[in-house]
Amino acid sequence: MTAATADSASSTTHRFPIQVRTGGSDIDGRRLRGTQRVLGTVYTEFFIGGGTNRGNNVLALRADTDGNNATAAGTIATWTDIVNDNEGYVGIDADGDTTNEFYYSNWEYGSRSANDFYERAKWIQREGTSETIYGLD
Question: Is the pLDDT of residue 15 over 80?
Fold first, then answer.
């Protein structure tokens, strides 16, 4: 794990307030989601309720090394032959049985391997990126 612990006695790395109510109403039902998207680590997310245990809630996020994501970001950035050639509900004969199965994407690997695709998909979603997928950053 690569996270630093600011307060080793309580295992606390960060402490900050998040507004969960405005104008007397809950914001998103007081539901909070924390994410960790550092390239080269296993991406994690954790959900908490902002109304439970008022004052202290724990987002259990880790940053463990991802053994399937060892390629440098600069190299992955050059893999432009991995493309999503259809963002929408589309029939694809994925298993070769002449009957379409329906998916919301059709990714093409180009000359790349399945693991290269995995790394490219993670690269698109990494923290601090301006890349988009389905119109979202």
Answer: no
